[in-house]
Amino acid sequence: MTNHKTQVAIIGSGPSGLLLGQLLTLSGIDNIIIDRVSKDYILSRVRAGVLEEGTVEMLDKANIGPRIHEEGMLHGGFTYAFSGRVERVDMRSLINKNVMVYGQTEVTQDLMEAREATNAPTIYEVEDACPVDFDSDKPYVTFKKDGVAHRIDCDFIAGCDGYHGPSRQSVPSSAIKTYEKEYPFGWLGILADVPPVRHEIIYANNERGFGMCSMRSTTRSRYYIQCANDDHVDNWSDDQFWDELRRRLPQDVAEEMTTGPSFEKSIAPLRSFVAEPMRFNKLFLVGDAAHIVPPTGAKGLNLAVSDVHYLFEGLREYYQEKSTAGIDAYSQKALSRVWKAVRFSWWFTTCMHRFPTTTEFDQKIQESDLDYLSKSVAAQTAVAENYVGLPF
Ligand code: RFL
Ligand code: PHB
Predict the structure, then answer these.
(1) Residues with catalytic annotation?
(2) Fewer CB within 10 A of the terminal residue: the chain, N end or C end?
(3) Residue 141 phi/psi, 5° resolution?
(4) Is the pLDDT of residue 64 over 80?
């Protein structure tokens, strides 16, 4: 058995674990991060692309360097299309705020590099990670690495291990309540080294299903189409994908879109999920470990960052001011913001997609919702506030 000792043991080296670790390290609070997979595998995962202003501020606070401001693209609005119309929510003129388009993979890479520069320990490719005795004053984490058993004794455990990780699953079912909604479709996404068709993101509601244009840079595009839940990437050649996407976009956009070979293609299911509470004495759930939102509105990564904000402030207060007020308030503060993002993501998903059960009545309601949005400054302001992210 190899024994380790630290103040905060962090399970999961995704954006939430890495950001929490970096903020703790910068405040002189020891932490060890463990992850089931390798660094390269984590960096090969293609996920979110839109960062709220509060997220960028948190990344600045973590000192992850200037790359995000050099390479990230500020967007002052987004476009939505429906019923042959093209409309825009202008966040910049409505509420003087922007979002930043910068890939989650880049955020993760920046955080990994920042962590390496501090020499804070990260152990990759561990097996059987398990939070233990977190209801007592002597919590610890066990795992195996290369067949050798390890144990990390700590003050607190941060469960930053995503939806499938062991942290939430180690909580007795009587102590946790979960809320869940599955959507009867997924998103088929591709990455291609072609210039984005428009400077801003386009969300398209179409009778053939949802379609979306996003990007990672001025030379790299990310496109999505709604697909069936049981669909498979092998069913879609690049040509089939582009043809179907074109059919779902406004005509001028479809005609001007540059296509090319994709180098990544994947299907993500859409789900809303919340676990309550997010604290179990010495164990905290953070990010996807506690909640999942459908990607419409790009809230998943941003919610992980706001959780980290509340938890980091609580832990900092605990160590520097000997107060438990922040960690005691963590679950309630985080969940209050989580539910608002869950509602917004659900609303945007419901407005923009075709459900197998959509009736003519539902269709009319969807169209009138989007028509109202296009005509009401109050509605646009509400959407803009949610899209750029509610305050922490
Ligand atoms: P992550 O990124 O899932 O990281 C969790 C880490 O925990 C590790 N882990 C374990 N470690 C040790 N032992 C175990 N037994 C473990 N089990 C798991 C994992 O290897 C991993 O490294 O969670 P985190 O840090 O909370 O970050 C959350 C975000 O990643 C997530 O909210 C977003 O990526 C969600 N999401 C999207 N969000 C958006 O805002 N826009 C998007 O376009 C978008 N696309 C996506 C997504 C999530 C996807 N997933 C989860 C399948 C597309 C996909 C495919
Ligand atoms: C993305 O670029 O992957 C993206 C952007 C906005 C969303 C979802 C995904 O709402």
Answers:
(1) 75, 203, 295, 299, 387
(2) N
(3) -120, 135
(4) yes
